[in-house]
Amino acid sequence: xxxxxxxxxxxxxxxxxxxxxxxxxxxxxxxxxxxxxxxxxxxxxxxxxxxxxxxxxxxxxxxxxxxxxxxxxxxxxxxxxxxxxxxxxxxxxxxxxxxxxxxxxxxxxxxxxxxxxxxxxxxxxxxxxxxxxxxxxxxxxxxxxxxxxxxxxxxxxxxxxxxxxxxxxxxxxxxxxxxxxxxxxxxxxxxxxxxxxxxxxx
Length: 202
Description:
Layout: E1 2-8, H1 13-23, E2 29-36, H2 42-49, E3 54-56, H3 64-77, E4 82-85, H4 94-99, E5 104-108, H5 120-127, E6 131-138, E7 148-155, H6 162-186, E8 189-192, E9 195-198
Helix pairs in contact: 1-6, 5-6
């Protein structure tokens, strides 16, 4: 069974969605370790409550490269096959990305390539778009720029603010992230340029 390493900095709702998909038999994997860079993150408490292997490696005051080497050591010690960023609020070093090349996934709350980086929902509201959503993508050394695996579209209502839009996007994140993980773990895909082609059933 493939082993997942979850990196998080916040409430851990995507961690819980992934764990729920595993428990429901929708995702054939196990969470080998959940790691937070913030001791106060609610997500690491949620992981511990689920009986998962929960680790805190504080990042405060550490150089990015030094910190990422600590992460790599922990992930390797737990035999992680695929790294899943779930609200992880640090930019990974090039060294980390090369160590797990094409084995790191991220979920971002916009329809990439629109609105990369921070405050994507606020950006969507400010730009007056009528649709937003979320994207699961491979992580490369650019900013939210890796090949796209899954997307979900969410309408933007005139009454929305960044918080209400974020809440509806989050519901779809919980759907597509386990789906994307399942596809990547199956190995039944190919990448053409920036396109991820699902070969299951073809």
